[in-house]
Design goal:
By secondary structure, the protein is of the alpha/beta class. The protein contains seven helices and twelve strands. Pfam families: Peptidase_M55 (PF04951).
Length: 274
Amino acid sequence: MNIYMSVDMEGITGLVDHTHVDSARHNYERGRAIMTEEANAVIHAAFDSGCSEVLVNDSHSQMNNLLIEKLHPEAKLISGGVKPYSMVQGLDETFQGAFFIGYHARASMKGVMSHSMIFGVRHMYINDKAVGEMGFNAYVAGYFGVPVLLVAGDDQAALEAEELIPNVTTAVVKETISRSVAKSLTPAKSQELLKKKTEQALQNRQNVKPLIPPDHPELKIEFANYGQAEWASMMPGTVHDPGTTTVRFKAKDILEAYRAMVVMTELAMKTTFC
């Protein structure tokens, strides 16, 4: 069995604010070490459960956070940006399941460091279905017929996953108190939990179906600032709804919608606030 792992950072145990996930801040090196240990616990459990291949995609920020020298020697790691498919780079029909580790809730929702790609996104939709990073990534997996078997992160990420993907296995490594405060398990206990949940997810795989995306989906992004919408709408094929911060794009499939989302959010980040 081949397993694909997308590993984000905000949903890792003990990481509660930007100082843990921003490479320029003092807590980052601690954060990336804990992130690596947490990912490695899942990788080891997957191989111990009989998986033949585990491909890991570093999915946070510049996507070069995981310490490859600490990973299981049989794992493979996709590291660095710029990636055409960002958090799901390398995912295709050769995998029998996907794991989303270190994930968080979508923008405008309760959850530790909740957001959707950039902090300038208020809401994101596929055909009027609200999605965050998790939902969009699950749709890409579904396009290739790959079910999301395991989601690990805070309690709000787990709730989002359970609403989105029937019978998915979730691992809650911290409970939300506020957007920058959590009650966390220690790394040792989180790793124990993740190993157990990985085994459960693989045993339960026949009960989880891929999240199939709609044909010819419309991507709609509501930005926080009008200037962000102006920048995003510079991408050919987009429509900026008059008098709003919403930009729409009609895609031929979910893969085109995903790449459009990456481009639109990257453009939106060029907005300044002075």
